[in-house]
Design a protein that fits this description.
Elements (H helix, E strand, L loop, with lengths): L9 H10 L9 H7 L5 H28 L3 H15 L8 H11 L4 H5 L6 H16 L2 H7 L6 H15 L9 H24 L3 H32 L1
């Protein structure tokens, strides 16, 4: 009889998830250029427009997780992610509206961002693949994929400092998304990590969760590959 591999302990599993930070996109050359003030205005605006497409698809990804999750308590908490990005009505603030404010603060026309004319094929493909993953895979794997948020708060702090120090042509009104998101991302990541640790209890489930997080890291990296290549071709 073939022996089954025992599950990792909670501590071992958590450490394995954290170790995937080595694959996170904070180390991508594009981010290095962004954080040192090396992006041109066109490159910065292209990044904002392409990141918009990713941002606007996040509620669709989260809705897919809700659709696949049978646990009412999980759904009650997870739906807050959709409220955060979409807003609860047309009069309040929302993450998506704050991202559009960043675009206009950088001198872009709102309509040019909304019609997605600047979205690169590679960014669109990667983003759509992430939404598709959340739709077809078990909800625990899609939650695990979201754990790139574990690594994001420090990146956003660095990005916010870079915007203030190196890109003074971007109006300070565009900083609000990052000002607000740092704390929210930390809270969301803590919740998602607990869900994964509590619900992925077999070795197979743990391996699938780790693969999902590595998959997400690869998608994010490929988005920056597309942006970096576009900048070099332009230059």
């Amino acid at each position: 009889m073939e022996k089954t591999t025992p599950p990792r302990t909670r501590q071992e599993f958590e450490a394995a998830l954290e170790a995937l930070s080595a694959h996170y996109w904070d180390k991508h050359p594009f981010h290095s250029r962004l954080h040192t003030g090396a992006l041109t205005q066109d490159e910065m605006r292209r990044w904002i427009a392409n990141r918009w497409y990713y941002q606007k698809c996040l509620p669709q990804k989260d809705a897919a997780i809700l659709a696949n999750c049978p646990d009412v308590k999980v759904r009650r908490r997870w739906v807050e992610r959709i409220h955060y990005q979409d807003g609860r009505d047309d009069t309040g603030s929302s993450g998506l509206e704050e991202w559009l404010t960043l675009a206009t603060a950088a001198g872009m026309k709102r309509a040019d961002v909304l019609d997605e004319r600047l979205v690169l094929p590679g960014v669109r493909f990667a983003t759509d693949a992430y939404v598709h993953f959340a739709r077809v895979r078990p909800w625990t794997e899609a939650v695990a994929a979201s754990l790139t948020e574990l690594f994001s708060p420090e990146l956003m702090r660095t990005r916010l400092t870079a915007l203030r120090d190196h890109y003074p042509w971007i109006h300070s009104s565009g900083h609000r998304y990052f000002d607000r998101r740092i704390e929210a991302a930390s809270s969301d990541a803590t919740h998602a990590r607990e869900l994964v640790l509590e619900n992925c209890t077999t070795r197979e489930q743990q391996d699938a969760a780790l693969a999902a997080l590595e998959f997400k890291c690869g998608l994010l990296w490929s988005m920056l590959d597309a942006l970096d290549r576009a900048g070099h071709e332009e230059g």
